[in-house]
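Dear colleagues,

I hope this message finds you well. In preparation for our joint manuscript, I am sending the peptidylprolyl isomerase (Prunus armeniaca) sequence together with its predicted structure, so that both groups work from identical material. I would be grateful if you could confirm receipt.
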Amino acid sequence: MVRPRCYLDITIGGELEGRIVVELYNDIVPRTAENFRALCTGEMGIGPNTNVPLHYKGGCFHRIIKGFMIQGGDISAGNGKGGESIYGLKFEDENFDIKHERKGMLSMANLGPDTNGSQFFITTTRTCHLDGKHVVFGRVIKGMGVVRSIEHVTTKDDHFPTQQVVIADCGQLPEGADDGLCNIFKDGDVYPDWPADLDAKPEAISWWVMAVDSIKALGNEQFKKQDFKMALRKYRKALRYLDVCWELEDIDEETSSSLRKTKSQIFTNSSACRLKLGDLDGALLDSDFALRDWEANVKALFRQGQAYMALNDIDSGVESFKKALELEPNDGGIKKELLVAKRKVSELYALLIGLSKKRNHILECFIDEGSHEAAHGMDDFGSLWHFLSSIANWLK
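The corresponding structure tokens are as follows:
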């Protein structure tokens, strides 16, 4: 018996995150597996109890507990209080033969014995305490990285995600059909988002280097198109593939050194994306990572300086631009940014001098006899408040 495969295409905050592919244990729990499969295809129409489509499409993951599981499938209420199976509102526990022995297990959520509906969860770790209470009916075979992305979405106190995590599309994959993980964004990318989703793990370092270069180039193309979110996504993907390289046996020192330089370049490009997206702390962090692998990376120093300036850390920005200029003395862009930074330092210094003079003048006013008389005339709180507010406005 061939086990059916189903897919869930996930968006987080309205942005496509990727595809989860699951295998269903129809040979062990046929009724439970069929319930999930039919809810993925939507073939059963409208539910007679909830009067909503018996379909996961458009539904959300409403409960996320990091280090435990992600839960969804409430097709009627969307908050964990609803749902309906293809057999009626609820159906019985089929059996507990399969255990929650590892991450990626697909299991039925319930409110107690024999209360299975449409809600399900995916484990993100081993959860043996659920054995004998929840029916396991499948497992994630591709897209565990997407599950991890969902798991790391921030949540409220009740574990409800702060961003919408939606099943944008779902269905059943035909027997023998491609899983659809490659080129999911229709941009010509021939590699799955996560190396773990490759059908086979190539052993040759040359294959991985080619993959990194190809994915990085796609990121550069998206940057030129000013699609900075997608560019950032490609750079993060390139880093995931690059990290695998150091696990391979045939990597030599020359290749390792070249890869460190490539890693630095990718982090530099990632920093540029984050600057464009307004993620200043992320831009600074990525530039720092870039410089760890290549201290003489002029572009990384330049991005670091830009991030510091945007964060109003002018002194650090000046230092970054100075270091960059030492490495590239004729770079006009660095000279321009350094000049702007120095001007800001001068302006801040002049402002501090001005404030210091105003402070001294105010102190002189307070020790002046006339000011004593003026202050003495403020015999109510309102007048004193008005006086202090005037001083505050003067200092601005």
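For the figure legend, we might mention the following. Residues 372-382, 387-396 have pLDDT under 50 and may be disordered. The first helix runs from residue 30 to 41.

With kind regards,
E.M.
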